[in-house]
Amino acid sequence: MSQRSNHLPTAQMQELDAAHHMHPFTHQADLNAKGARIITSANGVHVTDSEGRTMLDGMAGLWCVGVGYGRKELADVVSRQMQELPFYNTFFQTSHPPVIALSERLAQIAPDHITRVFYGSSGSEANDTNIRAVRQYWANLDQPERTHIIARWNGYHGSTMGGGSLGGMKGIHAQGGLPIPDIHHIDQPFWWGEGAEQSPEEFGIARARLLEDKILEIGADKIAAFIAEPIQGAGGVIIPPSTYWPEIQRICKEYDILLIADEVITGFGRTGNWFGSETFNITPDIITTAKGLTSGYIPMSASLFSEKIAANLSETDGEFTHGYTYSGHPVAAAVALENLRIIEDEKMIENVRTGAGAYLRDQWKQLSDHPLVGEAVIEGMMGGIQLTPNKTTRASFLSETGSVGYICREFCFANGLVMRATGDRMIIAPPLCMTRDNVDELINKAAICLDLTHKKAKNDGHM
Ligand code: PXG
User: Over the stretch 82-139, which tens digit does the pLDDT of each residue have?
Assistant: First the structure.
C-alpha cells in the first residue's frame, strides 16, 4: 500500500504551515496572512496544488528538476539502495559502490582536466567547500596570504556563511555579519540594465576588466580565486556578452588566479551541454554542482576538482580537514547516477540544444515584441524577460522595483504557469524534457500574462 502524506483541507494546512513552518527567504508575516500555496503532486512538467489546479512548471522546481517529475526509475533506485545500504560514511578510509561509480561518471562527463569529486548536500555547502579548498591550495604552495576571493554583485552562491558571502546579494549581507573576511565583489555583466552606452561587446570587456582592476587593487599575490556563475540564475538569468568570459579567462590565467565556475544551475544540460563551461568555453579549476545532479529528487552537491587542485589537496603531508556526514551519501549517489543515465539515454541535452529547446528559444525571443518587454534573452533552457514601461529609454516603473514583476508572477500562477520574478524580470528554467507542445503551452500562457500585466500596470499607475 502506498503511503500518502496527511492531506487536510487547504485552509487547515495553511494554518498549520503558518503556525509551525518557517520558510526560506520569505516575509513570514505576509505569507501567514494569505496562506501558502500547497503543492501536492507533480508529473512530467506539471505540478498540482491542493485545490487540484495544475500548472506548467517553468522553473523546474527551483532550477533543479531536469528530467521532470514522476520518474519511477529514481524512486526505484532509492528503494533498492535504501534496502541494500541506506547510509555509510566516506570518512575514515571507507567508501561504497554508489559513490565510486558516481565519481567515475562525473569525471567522465566533466571537462577532461576535472578528475575528482568532493560531495556535499547543497550548493551552499559545495561553495563553502570551495572556499576552504582554494585557500588551502595556496597554503599548501607556501602562499598562505592568498586568501582573498573575488565574486560579483548580484551573483548567487548560496546562503551559508560562505555561500552568502560569495554571493552579491546585499539583503543577505545585511543579516548575520556577512560577508566573511577577504571576499570582494565586482559589478555584473548585465548589459541591458547597466550598459546602455556601450555595445554589448564593449561592455562585456569593460565588465571583465573590473576583475583585473580588483586584482591590481588587492595585489595578485593575495588572491586565491574568482568565482562566478556562467549565467547568473537567481540574479535574473543574466547572460553575459560574448566577450565577457574569454576576457575573464585571460585575466585569471595572466595573474594565476583560480577560477571557480558555479554551475549549480547551469550544470547537467541546462545550457545545451553537460556544463555551461563548455557553452562558454571556460576552463575552470573547480565546478560547483548541485540541483540538476539529482534533478532535485534528493539533496546532493558536488565540487568537481581539476587534477591540479585535487592533487594539491590529496598529496600533501596533511589532510584537508573538511567534510560532511552526508558527503557522498549512498542513496543520493545512486539517484544521481540514475538521473545522469536518464539525461543521457533520453537525449535530454540534445533536446535542449536542437529539439524543443531550439523551438523554445525561437518563441521566447519573439516575446521581445511585446510592448512591456525590454529584452527577452535565453540560452539553452534558461531565459529572462525584462519588463519595462519604455523599451527605448529602458526606464523603470514608477512604483517600487519588483511591483510589476510580482503582478506578472501572480497572473502566471492564476493562469497555470510557474514563472519566477526577480525584481521586474521574469525568468524561466523549465525541465529539460519539455516537448514542443509544452513549449506552446508555456509561451501562450506567458503571452497572456504579459498582456494582463500590461493592462494592470497601466490601470494601477505603475507606468
Ligand atoms: N550556487 C548557485 C548558482 C545557485 O543558484 C546555490 C549556489 C546554492 O545552492 P543551495 O542548494 O544551497 O540552495 C544556488 C541556489 C532563486 C533561488 O530564487 C536560487 C537558488 C536557491 C534558492 C532560490 O532563484 N539557487
Answer: 999 999 999 999 999 999 999 999 999 999 999 999 999 999 999 999 999 999 999 9
120 alpha carbon – ligand 1 mean position (Å): 14
159: CA distance to ligand 1 center in Å? 8
Going through 234-327 in order, the beta strands assigned E by DSSP cover 258-262, 286-289, 301-306
Q: Looking at residues 200-209, what average pLDDT do you find?
A: 98
**pLDDT beyond 50 at 2:** no
Percentage of the chain modeled with pLDDT above 90: 97
Residue 367: DSSP 8-state: G
Please tell me if the CB atom of residue 123 comes closer than 6 angstroms to any atom of ligand 1.
yes
List for the chain the helix, strand, coil content (%; round to 5).
Answer: 45, 15, 40
For ligand 1, mutation pick of 23, 62, 409 (most atoms within 8 Å of CB): 62
Residue 277, CA distances (Å) to 149, 238, 259 in order: 20, 15, 11
**Minimum CA distance residue for ligand 1 atom 20:** 234
Residue labelled with grid coordinates 575552470: 284
Angle at 379 between CA 368 and CA 249, to 5 degrees: 125
Q: 367 CB less than 6 Å from ligand 1? A: no
pLDDT of residue 196: 79
Instruction: Give the nearest ligand 1 atom to 127 CA.
Output: 7
Would the CA dihedral through 40, 41, 46, 52 be positive or negative?
A: negative
CA of 26 to the centre of ligand 1 (A): 15
**Does the beta carbon of 427 sit less than 6 angstroms from any atom of ligand 1?**
no
**pLDDT of 1 higher than 50:** no
Probe residue for ligand 1, chosen from 121, 154, 264, 289 as the CB with the greatest number of ligand atoms within 8 Å:
264
In which element (H, E) is residue 417 found?
strand 417-418
pLDDT digits (tens, 9 = 90+) for 446-459: 999 999 999 999 99
pLDDT(3) > 60:
no
Environment class of residue 52 by beta-carbon count within 10 Å: exposed (0-12), middle (13-18) or buried (19+)? exposed
pTM confidence score: 0.98
